[in-house]
């Protein structure tokens, strides 16, 4: 049943692509129709995923398409269903947002909009199919469909050179990543008897081959997920796509990569080794820390959010690494906590990151630019967007009682069980990575105080901001839905963890013990004496104390009116917008303290006659400078060398063909 | 049910006691510096005065600015309610373990910093920027400290931790010594005392917390000030109950509670004296020296963790 | 073995060893020359107490001689000598600028973990109650070396060197309850002679290059520049 519905969802997305081509002459109608179909597919996917997850169903079917000896094989189980739920939900929300957001492009030219909607449909279909695929062959086809379709979405505004280069880098990384995944499946297929996941899972690999397969999959899926140092495409590609696409890419596509990784390592490969866990844990911790440090230095709003995706993927990988370490050392219950934490964070990140990208889209549309330094004071112009964005910020900063906190709390709890490990080094590494996670969390707070303070609070910094107003209903609706779900998943963690618990039960053979503990109000991963978190009671406590304090401070016998006056500012002169702290100045202390993390070039030109002083600051990613630029150079050199065989003479080329022919004949004989 | 009632009463008492502790530290400090000084109950008078004043709001202030005092104060009160103060039989301790407690403090800091940014003055921005920078360095050290503690007592639940520590046979554990040293350093930084911040000054170059709340007045200022005092009290309670837990009651019997109340009051007043002495004998640090101070706290917490693993477990 | 199951003197030893490690970190972070010397003396003092405690635990009272030697040399004599030296050289108020202090400290933390890892096999062989501190003493040695590498001033390097020697001494005391007396006396006097020689060198370095900044001594290669 749920698999049929999932197939229906795929069909609807393809239909929305077709609609984009059919109604190319009537752009507004086309936008409405295809986004309606897309949204419908999202809802269908949500219900399919929800049903399969709640009912813990496993279904499989073979479609009569594909290669003659290898028909496309689809399946749905708890893991796929969970990710299907995420993808469907964000797709639904993004398609509520899309029509009003896109309609201003409707005049750009019908073909442009039609291209955008066409590839959006394909992109979503690709993601659904990756989750549903039950053999390596259809997985790879769906994977490449997802990559290529999203390439066209990134390249949508291709009139600007930087967008073209971002899209190119994106495509390049996607191709390389695809190749690694293909090789990883190749290793598995060589040891198993066929390309279907069932037969791959049965394959027996020697530890060395298993490690090779793991390394290939780690790099391949890591390239898509955007772990450091494979993240460089991410901050370039995500900001240039239209905002609802950024939400889909950042919120969901990265999760699909995480899904692929989990499926490959836990389900297909099996026999997890603890060294893999350490690698995943370390890379995760570094990604989390570097992601947030890079984000702090950005003032392009969407690029900043993209770097936060790197951070959050890092957090998910920390959870996965912990669960792998515990699973390999036979502490299945703790491994289950860590795995649930990682999955929970996937869900949370999908929610708040989509929310933030949609909010950023609304802000960008109204302010007409990406640079935060020219915004300010938007909370008064766009109250709904501002309120939703605030909830997104609080959630991503992992503050109670919102959803981001729950998953990070579970990760901490799992890390604290490090004492059960025999190996003392691991026992220390775990808390140290969690200290890095704490640093990440605190820096994320710094970053989002900066974002919210500079974009929404204070005084408007440009005239365009003065004219900003609230966005249309559809765009508001999707943000509100996401904001509410951030709260809901934050205050009902026990229920969510309970539902997610079926996934470790299937993958690891053991669930999270304390989940059915004392009461549905407390989340108790181990037992009540060890740790507990009651999200709803904390929220109620907060609300009660606010109400009580409010009534105490507003006695009816007194005049409680407020006098509005100019800002005091220690008695300095009248305030103007240029005197405010900017994003750059806000992050300056952190830039000084963590100066090792970036390549910072700073220059001050003193004032001269007729010209004021100038301050230049350029912060760049050292990964790009020290890893990718040299690789690029080497490839360039090799390419130059190989170019020599292109002699230019016709006879030389004939010569090549001739010798190739001779060689092949020899091989055949 | 008695337990919940007890938790409510205890929370109220702590909230009401907080201004006294702040006033006490100030009074001792004045005595040490040969100054007359206001009486320890002066903060109550200040708060009462503030509650009667009309609020003057900056015309550019947004709803965040008006909501922040309630959020900050309310969250601090919730933090107060989950802390075992006189008895470890606290039902509310199950609401939030020590990581949640750190999270709740982070929530207050987030809104405090936003409020600082709201009016758009450069003082506010400066305060917010410094606050989030320093706390991002303090938080890892704080959590490492709590992790070491949690590894020793195998729980992150504060009630269980305090109960374990107060019952355990006296052990000279290096990990706990280091962790507590780190906790002291971090607590000084987090509550905005000398040498990181100076609660008494309004000089723009030296302040952090005061810079963020410059634009507040009337009842809003009251809440902000009270929340800061409450935070100081909560950190002090955390310190005394973790480092010298003896005397805390393990039951909810009235006599035991009364005894525990007296002992915790005594410990808090002594800690107040120590804080005053340390504040009198030190100068405030330059902002960019503070990372080294907090780095030391982090190294201490790291050493605590490592000595637990290396020296104590096997 | 859980710490709660140990006797009080053993707990004291463990705590002292942890404090010795802390003093190594303090040395690593200290920038003022005079405080550096004081911290070094403090480390000697902790070492003295630790040796006393171990003498008490093991009942080997010849360790008391080592303890007395430590007190006399490392707490009193060498610090006084050094202090007089820096006063003569007029550098006792100098403040050294550290290069990336936090990274060095974190690296030091990593060294502690590393020495734990390295000393695990040794620890498993030993049956002494103090065996866990072998990792600590190795860490003290390594951190001393790190200090020599990361510092520029000759004085700090010398102190790093002597803190290394402290680590060695501590290792000997905790792992075998003391080396043969002859060896110990020999090492002690070696250090003493080293300090005096270093003192002489300080003057020579300064007259040659006009400062005690060893970054200037950078021509130890065979390539003519």
Describe this structure in words.
- Chain A is mainly alpha-helical and 669 residues long.
- Chain A is built from 26 helices and five strands.
- In chain A, 69% of the residues lie in helices and 5% in strands.
- The termini of chain A are far apart.
- Helix content of chain B is 71%, strand content 1%.
- Chain B contains eleven helices and one strand.
- The radius of gyration of chain C is 18 Å and the shape is globular.
- The interface between B and C is medium-sized, with 25 and 28 residues.
List the helices and strands and how they pair.
The complex is a heterotrimer of chains A (669), B (314) and C (225).
Chain A: H1 2-22, H2 27-55, E1 59-67, E2 70-76, H3 78-103, H4 110-132, H5 136-154, H6 161-191, H7 197-201, H8 207-225, H9 234-240, H10 243-269, H11 274-296, H12 301-328, H13 332-367, H14 378-381, H15 383-396, H16 403-416, H17 424-455, H18 463-466, H19 473-491, H20 493-500, H21 502-507, H22 535-553, E3 562-565, H23 583-586, H24 588-593, E4 599-605, E5 614-620, H25 622-642, H26 650-668
Antiparallel strand pairs in A: 1-2, 4-5
Helix pairs in contact in A: 1-2, 1-4, 2-3, 2-4, 3-4, 3-10, 3-13, 3-19, 4-5, 4-10, 5-6, 6-8, 6-9, 8-10, 9-12, 10-12, 10-13, 11-12, 11-17, 12-13, 12-16, 12-17, 13-15, 13-16, 13-19, 15-17, 15-19, 16-17, 16-19
Chain B: H1 2-32, H2 42-52, E1 55-58, H3 63-81, H4 98-118, H5 122-153, H6 158-167, H7 174-190, H8 209-212, H9 218-243, H10 254-280, H11 290-313
Helix pairs in contact in B: 1-3, 1-9, 1-10, 2-9, 3-4, 3-9, 4-5, 5-7, 5-11, 7-9, 7-11, 9-10
Chain C: H1 8-29, H2 33-58, H3 63-89, H4 101-125, H5 133-150, H6 154-176, H7 181-209
Helix pairs in contact in C: 1-2, 1-5, 2-3, 2-6, 3-7, 4-5, 5-6, 6-7
């Amino acid at each position: 049943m749920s698999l049929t519905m999932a197939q229906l969802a795929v069909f609807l997305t393809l239909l929305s692509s077709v609609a984009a081509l059919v109604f190319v002459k009537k752009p507004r109608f086309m936008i409405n129709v295809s986004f309606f179909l897309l949204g419908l597919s999202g809802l269908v996917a949500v219900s399919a995923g929800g049903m399969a997850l709640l009912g813990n169903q496993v279904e499989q079917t073979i479609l009569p398409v594909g290669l003659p000896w290898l028909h496309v094989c689809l399946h749905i189980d708890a893991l796929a269903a969970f990710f299907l739920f995420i993808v469907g939900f964000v797709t639904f929300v993004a398609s509520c947002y899309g029509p009003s957001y896109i309609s201003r492009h409707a005049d750009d030219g019908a073909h442009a909009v039609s291209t955008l909607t066409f590839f959006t449909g394909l992109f979503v279909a690709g993601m659904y199919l990756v989750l549903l695929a039950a053999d390596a062959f259809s997985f790879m086809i769906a994977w490449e469909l997802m990559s290529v379709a999203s390439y066209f979405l990134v390249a949508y505004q291709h009139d600007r050179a930087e967008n073209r280069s971002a899209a190119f880098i994106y495509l390049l990384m996607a191709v390389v990543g695809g190749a690694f995944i293909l090789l990883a499946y190749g290793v598995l297929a060589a040891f198993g008897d066929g390309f279907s996941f069932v037969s791959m899972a049965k394959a027996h690999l020697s530890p060395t081959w298993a490690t090779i397969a793991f390394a290939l999959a780690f790099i391949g899926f890591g390239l898509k997920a955007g772990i450091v140092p494979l993240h460089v495409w991410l901050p370039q590609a995500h900001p240039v796509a239209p905002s609802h696409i950024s939400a889909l890419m950042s919120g969901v596509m990265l999760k699909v990569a995480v899904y692929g990784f989990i499926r490959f390592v836990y389900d297909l490969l099996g026999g997890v080794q603890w060294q893999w866990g350490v690698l995943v844990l370390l890379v995760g911790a570094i990604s989390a820390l570097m992601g947030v440090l890079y984000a702090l230095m950005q003032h392009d709003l969407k690029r900043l959010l993209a770097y936060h995706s790197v951070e959050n993927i890092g957090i998910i990988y920390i959870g996965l690494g912990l669960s792998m370490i515990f699973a390999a050392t036979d502490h299945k219950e703790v491994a289950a906590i860590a795995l649930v934490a990682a999955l929970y964070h996937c869900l949370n990140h999908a929610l708040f990151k989509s929310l933030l990208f949609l909010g950023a889209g609304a802000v960008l549309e109204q302010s007409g630019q990406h640079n935060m330094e020219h915004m300010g004071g938007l909370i008064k112009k766009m109250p709904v967007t501002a309120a939703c964005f605030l909830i997104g910020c609080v959630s991503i900063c992992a503050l109670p009682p919102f959803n981001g906190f729950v998953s990070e709390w579970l990760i901490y709890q799992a890390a604290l069980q490090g004492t059960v490990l025999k190996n003392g080094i691991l026992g220390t590494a775990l808390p140290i990575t969690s200290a890095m996670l704490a640093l990440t969390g605190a820096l994320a707070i710094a970053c989002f105080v900066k974002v919210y303070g500079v974009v929404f609070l204070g005084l408007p910094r440009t005239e365009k901001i003065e004219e900003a107003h609230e966005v249309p209903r559809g765009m508001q609706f999707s943000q509100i839905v996401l904001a509410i779900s951030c709260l809901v998943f934050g205050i009902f963690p026990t229920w969510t963890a309970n539902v997610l618990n079926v996934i470790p039960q299937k993958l690891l053979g053991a669930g999270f013990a304390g989940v059915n503990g004392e009461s549905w109000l407390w989340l108790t991963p181990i037992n009540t004496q060890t740790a507990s978190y009651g999200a709803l009671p904390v929220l109620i406590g907060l609300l009660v104390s606010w109400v009580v304090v409010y009534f105490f401070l507003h006695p009816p016998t007194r005049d409680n009116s407020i006098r509005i006056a100019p800002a005091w500012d220690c008695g300095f002169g009248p305030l103007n917008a240029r005197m405010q702290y900017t994003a750059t100045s806000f992050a300056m202390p952190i830039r000084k303290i963590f100066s090792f993390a970036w390549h910072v070039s700073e220059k001050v030109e003193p004032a001269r006659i007729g010209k004021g002083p100038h301050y230049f600051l350029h912060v760049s990613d050292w990964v790009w400078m020290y890893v990718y630029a040299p690789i690029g150079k080497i490839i360039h050199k090799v390419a130059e060398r190989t170019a020599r065989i292109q002699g230019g003479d016709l006879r030389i080329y004939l010569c090549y063909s001739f010798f190739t022919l001779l060689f092949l004949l020899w091989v055949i004989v | 049910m008695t337990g919940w009632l007890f938790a409510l009463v205890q929370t109220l008492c702590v909230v009401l006691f907080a201004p006294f502790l702040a006033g006490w530290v100030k009074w001792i400090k004045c005595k040490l510096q040969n100054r007359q000084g206001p009486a320890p109950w002066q903060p109550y008078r200040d708060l009462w005065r503030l509650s009667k004043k009309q609020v003057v709001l900056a015309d550019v202030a947004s709803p965040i600015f008006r909501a922040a005092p309630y959020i900050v104060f309310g969250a601090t009160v919730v933090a107060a309610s989950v802390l075992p103060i006189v008895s470890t039989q606290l039902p509310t301790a199950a609401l939030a373990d020590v990581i949640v407690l750190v999270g709740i403090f982070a929530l207050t800091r987030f809104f405090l910093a936003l409020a600082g940014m709201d009016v758009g003055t450069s003082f506010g921005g400066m305060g917010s920027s410094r606050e989030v920078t320093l706390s991002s360095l303090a938080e890892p050290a704080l959590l490492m400290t709590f992790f070491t503690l949690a590894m020793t007592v195998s729980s992150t639940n504060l009630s269980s931790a305090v109960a374990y520590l107060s019952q355990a046979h006296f052990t000279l554990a290096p990990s706990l010594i280091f962790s507590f040293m780190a906790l002291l350093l971090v607590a000084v930084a987090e509550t905005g005392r000398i040498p990181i911040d100076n609660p008494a000054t309004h000089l723009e170059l030296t302040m952090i917390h005061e810079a963020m709340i410059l634009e507040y007045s009337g009842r809003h200022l009251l809440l902000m000030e009270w929340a800061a005092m409450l935070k100081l009290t909560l950190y002090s309670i955390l310190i005394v109950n973790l480092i010298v837990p003896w005397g805390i009651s393990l039951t909810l019997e009235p006599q035991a509670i009364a005894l525990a109340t007296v002992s915790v009051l005594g410990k808090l007043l002594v800690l107040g004296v120590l804080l005053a002495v340390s504040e009198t004998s030190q100068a405030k640090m330059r902002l960019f020296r503070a990372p080294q101070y907090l780095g030391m706290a982090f190294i201490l917490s790291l050493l605590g963790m490592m000595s637990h693993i290396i020296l104590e477990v096997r | 073995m859980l710490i709660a199951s140990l006797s009080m003197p053993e707990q004291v030893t463990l705590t002292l060893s942890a404090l010795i490690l802390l003093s190594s970190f303090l040395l690593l972070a200290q920038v003022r020359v005079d405080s550096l010397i004081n911290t070094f003396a403090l480390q000697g003092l902790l070492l003295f107490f630790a040796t006393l405690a171990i003498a008490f635990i093991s009942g080997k009272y010849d360790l008391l001689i080592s303890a007395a030697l430590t007190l006399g040399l490392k707490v009193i004599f060498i610090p006084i000598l050094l202090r007089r030296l820096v006063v003569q050289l007029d550098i006792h108020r100098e403040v050294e600028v550290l290069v990336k202090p936090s990274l060095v400290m974190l690296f030091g933390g990593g060294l502690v973990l590393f020495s734990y890892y390295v000393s695990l096999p040794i620890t498993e062989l030993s049956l002494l109650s103090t065996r866990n501190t072998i990792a600590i003493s190795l860490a003290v040695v390594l951190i001393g070396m790190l200090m020599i590498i990361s510092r520029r001033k000759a004085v700090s390097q010398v102190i790093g060197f002597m803190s290394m020697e402290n680590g060695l001494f501590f290792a000997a005391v905790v792992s075998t309850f003391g080396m043969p007396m002859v060896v110990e006396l020999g090492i002690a006097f070696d250090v003493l002679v080293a300090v005096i020689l270093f003192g002489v060198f300080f003057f020579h370095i300064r007259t040659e290059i006009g400062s005690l900044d060893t970054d200037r001594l950078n021509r130890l290669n065979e390539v003519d520049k």
